[in-house]
Amino acid sequence: MLPNCPKCNSSYTYEMDNMFVCPECAHEWSALDSTDGDVSVSVKDANGNELKDGDSITIIKDLKVKGSSAPLKQGTKVKNIRLIDDGIHNIDCKIDGFGAMKLKSEFVKKL
Length: 111
Known about the structure:
It comes from Acetoanaerobium sticklandii (strain ATCC 12662 / DSM 519 / JCM 1433 / CCUG 9281 / NCIMB 10654 / HF). By secondary structure, this protein is mostly beta strands.
């Protein structure tokens, strides 16, 4: 359910990229503005341990990577993760030999 417009209280708002838009008054606001200040993301690894920005993790299962012939191997260590919430993935990181990557928290464990 999308929030009503904070300017005119219209219920016809829609989402465009990371913004909400009101078609009645043309007001645009950030999706983060409508969370009432609570922007923290609670992400847990495969074992139920809570992850935080800057943590180090290990991949617990071989993962196929689109556009690469080699998979991410089980046991690959990743340092300095960043938590995100893009609807599909929870973790943004850089992996040696692969580059920038987004991962799901269900395939990693905290070190």
